[in-house]
Amino acid sequence: MEHEDQQVEQIKQFIKEYGPWIVAGVVIGLGSLFGWRHYQDSQTQAAESRTAIYQQMLETLQFSEGDEASARAQALAAELEGSEQGALAQLHLAQQAVNQGDFDAARSYLESAHATLRSGELKSIVALRLARLDIAREDYNSAEAWLNGIRSSAFAANVAEVRGDIHYARGNHAAARESYLAAAEASVSGASTALQMKIDNLAGHE
């Protein structure tokens, strides 16, 4: 009992010397610490849950066919909306839509993924896919806009090649060949077989 009385007196003395606001700050600080730990734990659990749902969606696309499987995959992707896993899920749905010839649906999935992703590299990859898709849709201005939004020099070769595809689709063969040559020069490994075929096909169009 005497020991407890001493502790009470020590606390009173602490409050008297340092003021109630400092004591309140200590309490709030401890509360924030425990709250942050709880938040981190909940975030980890949420991430694990999203990963499990994403895996289910991949398995649905890989091992199932038909409208029912497609609807199931879309429902799973909807559960991940707004997350990185959700954006990746939409990339797979976009690929499925392209395989089915539904370019408008594919574009919608890709635009949603691009808006959600935080990684600059992933956003650039999606922008390149959108540009290629817009070329297939003959929306060349939109395709150029997606390319113009890619700032990373790591994608310089890809951007130049797709820009060449836009020129070619518009019938600007000389400009297309220049872009293809720029793509080959910017590529660390040199021109791919497909890119070299594009260059050779436009020989003489300087």
TrEMBL record:
Topology relative to the membrane: Single-pass membrane protein
Which UniProt key words apply to this protein? Cell membrane, Chaperone, Membrane, Transmembrane, Transmembrane helix
Q: Tell whether Iron is among the UniProt keywords.
A: no
What InterPro entries does the annotation carry? Answer: SecYEG/CpoB_TPR, YfgM
Q: Which GO terms describe its cellular component?
A: plasma membrane
Q: Where are the transmembrane segments?
A: none
Signal peptide region = none
Q: What is this protein called?
A: Ancillary SecYEG translocon subunit/Cell division coordinator CpoB TPR domain-containing protein
